[in-house]
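User: Some background: our group keeps a shared notebook of sequences we're curious about, and every so often someone picks one and asks for a predicted structure to add to the entry. Today it's my turn. The entry only has the sequence so far, pasted here. Could you supply the structure so I can complete it?
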Amino acid sequence: MTIRMPCKRCKEMIVAVDEDDLVRQVEEHARDHGSAHGKHVPKRQHILRHLRGGEHRHG
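Assistant: Of course. Here's the predicted structure to add to the notebook entry:
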């Protein structure tokens, strides 16, 4: 199964073979942005909620 998710910041398409691979790739991609912009790396639950179309809430 192939999973595709666009980066919310740069719109680059992240392609993974399963949810675990997707989480790993999104975390790595976010770290690249974070080092440039000082942003946090999203948690696994946030990534999967976004993948499934769930709403985004802050604390």
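Suggested note for the entry: The mean pLDDT is 79. Residues 19-37 form the longest helix (19 residues).
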